[in-house]
Amino acid sequence: MREIFLPSGETVPALGIGTWGMGEQPGNAARETAAIHTALDLGMSVVDTAEMYGNGAAEELVGKALASRRNEAFLVTKVLPHHATLRGTIAACEGSLRRLGTDNINLYLLHWRGSVPLAETLEAFKHLQQAGKIRHWGVSNFDVADLQELQPLPGAEGVAADQVLYNLTRRGIEFDLLPQCVSSGIPVMAYSPLEQGRMLKDPLLLRIAAEHGTSPAQIALAWVLRQPLVIAIPKASSPQHVHEVHRSLSIELTPHDLADLDSAYPPPTRKAMLEMI
Fold it and tell me: Which residues are designated catalytic?
């Protein structure tokens, strides 16, 4: 498993598991729990969730899944922007900790920009770190201007990651955000790296997958994972799906593959608004 260095020097695997949409159907709980356990078995220890997902249902599912395996997971969750005041962030974190059944979170992210001043949210993150409730903090859906606004604030050097939408069909961050993060040593967490499955019937992906004897999902993930400092967190809600995405780590795309993918999905040539879903 390729490792990604956080600014602190700690390493995490380049491939983890996302839980957006999990925990919302009780009948799926056993399968979703098994998926998280399979991810841990395969070394995909980054488990990403958020207080927003299912109004806490995803965190509850993750907490139950990790009950006996908490030390194996690099646990990531997020605070909603309207909770991101000093008191609100601390209260939101405590709520996440209760739902997750743990006393600490490895990485706590501001889910996206809101109206609360960033300095106030950073102060809350500092308090949570000092209390041992979070190990690292980071941001999500931050563009270049947001990171530039963050940079001069007290404690901003502690930002451990920026989680953004990134996949073959959403390449806008390659113009400026991804290069800035790489030059600053800030890992990018790529959410929806498979575009929620919408691109997996693409004829080109099907052709390249056939040439490699693999699946379109594995090709799309291998494309994301080729980037330095990128951690992919695809949702994988069954053990079979987890095994499929894990096999993407063994795929090496050829220069011809990459040229064909660039032709079909061109890299950006100008600044575009940061995309979100």
Answer: 53
